[in-house]
Amino acid sequence: MIKLKNLLNEGNGNKYEIGGDAYDGGVDCIVYVNGKKVYKGWRVGNHDWEYKKKEYDTIDKMLDQIAKDNGLKSHKDFKRKEL
């Protein structure tokens, strides 16, 4: 059984939600730092991720920059969740 306290705490913390659509090949990503949404974006096919007008070829590289901008160390500070 999942406790209500655990459900409430799951919304807090550092995580990124990622998911896609097989129809158009797009991938959506939402990044949270301390429970606050700091990024929402998507990419199509083989295009790069874009964050603050800069392109990143992998999600981990983009997350590294988001982490640094928010006082964290790297992409390893984020927990992955499926959209």
Explain what the structure shows.
About 7% of the residues have low confidence. A four-stranded mixed β-sheet has the order 3-2-1-6, covered by helices on one side. It has a two-stranded antiparallel ribbon with strand order 4-5. The chain starts with a helix and ends with a strand. Helices cover 22% and strands 41% of the residues. Strand 4 and strand 5 form a beta hairpin. The chain has two helices and six strands; from the N terminus they run H-E-E-E-E-E-H-E. It has 83 residues and is an alpha+beta fold. It has one domain.
Give the topology, please.
Layout: H1 4-10, E1 15-21, E2 26-33, E3 36-44, E4 49-51, E5 54-56, H2 59-69, E6 79-82
Parallel strand pairs: 1-6
Antiparallel strand pairs: 1-2, 2-3, 4-5
Give a quick precis of the structure.
With 83 residues, the chain is α+β, with helices and mostly antiparallel strands.
Q: List the secondary-structure elements in sequence, H or E.
A: HEEEEEHE
Largest sheet: 4 strands, mixed
Write out the strand line-up for the largest beta sheet, numbering strands in chain order. 3-2-1-6
Average of pLDDT? 87
Radius of gyration: 14 Å
Got a strand count?
6
Work out the helicity level.
Answer: 10-25%
Structural class: alpha+beta
Characterize the overall form.
globular
Number of domains: 1
Number of helices: 2
Task: State the end-to-end CA separation.
Answer: 22 Å
| Strand coverage percent | 35-45%
**pLDDT under 50 segments (min length 5)?**
4-9
